[in-house]
Write a structure and sequence with these properties.
- 48% of the residues lie in helices and 12% in strands.
- The two termini are 47 Å apart.
- Strands 3-6-2-7-14-1-15 form a seven-stranded parallel sheet.
- Helix 19 crosses helix 25, helix 24 runs antiparallel to helix 25 and helix 28 packs across helix 29.
- It is built from 38 helices and 23 strands.
Length: 914
């Protein structure tokens, strides 16, 4: 039997529940498989994860080392039979990799591959290392010059001949270009310089969370332990967060920044070698390539960057950006280069859960540890990464650019290129035919089936299965796998968009500034990538997702453009790739219930011995929290914030009267959560018109969550400063008009997901109604129907929900409710769970440490029903255990709730003074 694990790195005296959590995590890592570990917010979950997981890593490495030493001693054999297979495999793979590197080294001096030698005589049109002038290039240039009458240098946009045999033999295609070609996903596609040949792969822990701020918090907690200086840590993030190239940052949008960065990597700047310059009358024989981004041209600085951060201990993203700026070198690529030697990789969801991102970053999950924090909505977050969407305007741009390119270069393209480019035109026209419902007569009719399927329909939105979609457009005979291979190997999207940009630029009468030009370039390339992503989605299994066809519709601000979108519905296959590779996958969160839904959607085939679950209670004493389910307001009006009743003047004014009473009894800060920004605005305007807003502001200042995430930090800063200032004033003076602040927030907004309202910032959390998602959301309805059919045979599911046929949606809420009412089992439960997970996330923003205290008001009659009459699906049964056990249902007059609140804050104020 193994010794009981200890956690000496924990910087404080741990509470008993923290010890239990750390032991459960430690044991889970030893057993492998999938574990779900639940620890309420405010219980030191992050610190417990760090101290337990890293202690396990240290212990494993010590054991690994002792086993290796034992194996080398006479009679030591091949190591202990008790060593798990995955650890033996890790050692064997690591040794083999080192041996392989040693074999390769003498051949290449410094260990770098001879790229020019390995790639044959054909040049790489996008990012050459060495470009040799040839007679044929000159001929192409002369032909183009004669054809146009002006020198456009259009030969750079010409395609290399593409033979059909290349599709069958990927190696043949790559022999003419750099291996890997142009990646389809915008998160990848850049070349990596192999400067880390001597780096050995370390046994790793990958820690990922949803936001960059949560990752920074993880690093902050890591620094509190000895592991912060002892372990090799690297933080990864998006280009937008890391980029220090001011010209690129000006673009603002993450999409444009990604595209511009990739474009700079592709369009490497050619530096003329002086030794090869033979004077004005001579010819330049060769040119040497370097990065098009000034932050990546100096490789010595990149090495210095890696060296410096390896000596600094645990650094968060802000630290890495600061060092990058100071040194004048890219922190995005600099941090990526450290991955092989890192023991802890801290990264956002997308980077780990998306297969293309993992491949781009070179993440090796084999026999390593994956810890996913904030995993309460993991299934939906995972499948949403595999959605693909293209708008009608993007499709029109793609279609026109392909058409323009084909017209310009038709006579210079071989039969292979012409055939594939014409195929792309057929597909874009077919897609446009759907969105314009056959109205655009300039487009080629994809077939009578499409007209039959879509022409007579008046519905603005509809959905189809993949096969039905392809058959309707008469494009089911196109081999999309081969087409995608062609797009990847031929570099077509960069050629076409590059030529389109050039033509557009030359057509401009006045010069464009750099930032505007780059933005337009990014938008063109983004459209092509969206198109390719949609094509890739169409290669999924028929039942994996649905195609949403949303046509142009009138809105209050004008016409809303149409779009095609592939919605992924199943995450099992995607998640299994992670589970199968990693030694252990840990899903951690404050509220992971109900676990059955997560198991059913992500790993239904996992055997019981490979699944572990642990949940602990909260550290706070019972008297530090007062959850109240409130059914009536101060005037006796019952609270009903269902969709049909919430917008009534009576309901909004009753809520306002409740706030008028709360501001007199609740000290410091009150956070009120609404179901949407629209409803929050509606209530605010009603309070303003009735004078209720003025009454509330006599006691507390009011703040509102902004729609823009970038403005949230400023509002929160003002909110906190107001509370701190008024609290300090109240301690000095007995009679002060205002005693704090009220923050009006939105469920699902930034404030509800990642902001902590400890102490005075959240003395009372008010949840207005049950924030069910809108039933008019077509994507939500598709997910609900899919989940309702889990575990049911395909034939039965198709009959009940017409999964294989086109579904029309008018966007009508009542029609959505009708679909939801038809769901009796998993679909209905999923819809209810979405609501209560959002509630739990929001109310969990309060109570952040053992001395904190807060009241939680659940304002709606549906929360406050008689406990003896509650069904299993009752909302309060889905609350966290530590809140549910202390919930007080107030089904009578409001006065009872007011008395409870008064006593609660009076008691805790006394406790705080002691």
């Amino acid at each position: 039997m193994e010794d009981e694990p200890t956690f000496p790195a924990f910087p404080y005296e741990p509470y008993s529940i923290q010890i239990d959590f750390m032991k459960a995590l430690y044991r889970s890592l030893g057993k492998g498989g999938v574990s779900m570990l639940e620890s309420p917010t405010g219980t030191g979950k992050t610190l417990s994860i760090i101290c337990s997981a890293l202690q396990w890593l240290v212990d494993r490495k010590h054991r690994l080392k002792s086993e290796a030493n034992h194996a080398q001693t006479p009679g030591g054999g091949n190591g202990s039979d008790d060593e798990p297979d995955w650890m033996k495999n890790f050692v064997a793979n690591n040794d083999a990799a080192v041996e392989d590197k040693m074999k390769k080294k003498p051949m290449f001096g410094k260990g770098k591959p001879d790229k020019g030698r390995n790639q044959g005589s054909c040049r790489n049109l996008l990012s050459p290392n060495f470009v040799e002038e040839g007679v044929q290039e000159k001929k192409d240039s002369e032909i183009l010059r004669e054809n146009n009458g002006v020198e456009l240098n259009d030969e750079e946009f010409l395609m290399e001949e593409y033979e059909s045999g290349e599709e069958e033999d990927a190696g043949a295609g790559k022999s003419k270009r750099k291996a890997g070609g142009v990646c389809i996903n915008s998160s990848s596609g850049e070349e990596e310089e192999d400067d880390n040949e001597d780096d050995e792969e370390e046994l790793k822990i990958y820690f990922c969370s949803r936001t960059h701020s949560q990752l920074s918090q993880f690093v902050k907690e890591l620094r509190k332990t000895v592991f912060g200086n002892e372990m090799k840590v690297v933080s990864l993030g998006s280009r937008k967060i890391f980029c220090i190239n001011e010209e690129v940052l000006k673009l603002g949008s993450s999409t444009y920044i990604n595209e511009r960065c990739l474009e700079l990597q592709q369009n490497k700047k050619k530096e003329v070698s002086k030794l090869k310059n033979l004077g004005s009358g001579g010819r330049i024989r060769r040119t040497k390539a370097s990065s098009g981004c000034p932050m990546l041209r100096n490789k010595k600085l990149q090495k210095q960057f890696r060296s410096e951060i390896s000596q600094e201990g645990a650094l968060d993203i802000e630290d890495l950006v600061h060092i990058g700026r100071r040194m004048g070198t890219c922190p995005y690529y600099g941090s990526r280069s450290i991955i092989p030697t890192a023991e802890i990789v801290v990264l956002p969801y997308q980077s780990l859960l998306s297969k293309s991102s993992r491949e781009s970053l070179g993440l090796n999950l084999k026999n390593n540890i994956v810890i996913i924090d904030e995993a309460h909505n993991l299934a939906d977050s995972l499948i949403s990464m595999y959605d693909a969407k293209i708008t009608s305007s993007q499709l029109e741009h793609v279609n026109s650019h392909i058409k323009q390119y084909l017209e310009r270069f038709r006579n210079f393209l071989g039969p292979g290129n012409r055939r594939y480019i014409q195929t792309l035109l057929v597909i874009t026209r077919a897609f446009l035919q759907i969105l314009f419902n056959g109205k655009d007569t300039s487009l080629v009719d994809p077939g009578h089936d499409a007209e039959k399927a879509f022409g007579a329909k008046n519905a603005l939105d509809s959905s189809m299965a993949i096969n039905e979609f392809l058959f309707s457009l008469n494009i089911d005979n196109i081999n999309l796998v081969k087409l995608l291979h062609y797009i990847k190997e031929s570099n077509i999207i960069h050629k076409v968009s590059g030529y389109g940009n050039k033509v557009a630029y030359l057509q401009k009468v006045s010069a464009l500034n750099d930032s505007r030009e780059s933005s337009e370039e990014g938008s063109i390339l983004s459209g092509f990538r969206a198109f390719v992503d949609l094509l890739l989605s169409l290669t999924n299994n028929d039942g994996d997702g649905r195609i949403i066809i949303s046509r142009e519709k009138p809105t209050s601000s004008g016409q809303e453009g149409g779009y095609l979108k592939y919605v992924m519905l199943t995450g099992e296959k995607i998640f299994s790739e992670i589970v199968d590779q990693a030694h252990a996958v840990i899903l951690a969160g404050g509220t992971l219930q109900p676990i059955e839904e997560t198991k059913e959607r992500l790993f239904p085939q996992l055997t019981p011995d490979r699944f572990h679950f642990f949940s602990c209670s909260h550290i706070i004493p019972p008297e530090s929290i007062l959850p109240v389910a409130l059914s009536h307001g101060p005037s006796g009006q019952s609270f009903d914030f269902s969709y049909s009743s919430r917008s009534s003047t009576i309901m909004m004014e009753e809520l306002g009267l409740l706030l008028c009473n709360l501001v007199t009894v609740v000290p410091e800060g009150i956070v009120v959560f609404f179901s949407s920004f629209d409803y929050e605005g509606q209530v605010y305007d009603s309070w303003k018109a009735s004078g209720i807003l003025e009454r509330i502001m006599k006691k507390k200042r009011i703040f509102r969550e902004p729609r823009k995430n970038t403005d949230v930090e400023f509002v929160l800063k003002e909110y906190k400063e107001t509370i701190d200032k008024l609290s300090n004033t109240n301690q000095k003076e007995d009679h002060v008009p205002q005693n704090g602040a009220v923050l009006l927030a939105v469920v699902g907004g930034k404030i509800s997901e990642g902001i902590n309202f400890s102490d005075g910032m959240g003395r009372c959390i008010v949840m207005v109604g049950l924030p069910y998602p809108s039933p008019s959301d077509i994507e939500l309805l598709e997910r609900v129907k899919h989940i309702e059919g889990l575990g049911v045979s395909n034939s039965g599911r198709s009959t009940k929900f017409s999964v294989g046929n086109e579904q029309d949606y008018s966007g009508d809420v009542q029609a959505g409710f009708a679909i939801l009412r038809s769901c009796k089992h998993r679909g209905k439960e999923y819809y209810e769970n979405l609501c209560m997970k959002a509630v739990n996330q929001s109310i969990g923003r309060a109570i952040r440490h053992i001395n904190d205290y807060a009241a939680i008001l659940l304002v709606d009659g549906r929360y406050a029903s008689d406990p003896s009459k509650r069904s299993l699906s009752h909302p309060t049964n889905k609350l966290p255990q530590w809140i549910r056990d202390r919930l007080v249902p107030v089904t009578g007059k409001y006065g009872e709730a007011h008395r409870l609140l008064y006593q609660f804050f009076k008691l805790n104020k006394k406790r705080g003074c002691q």
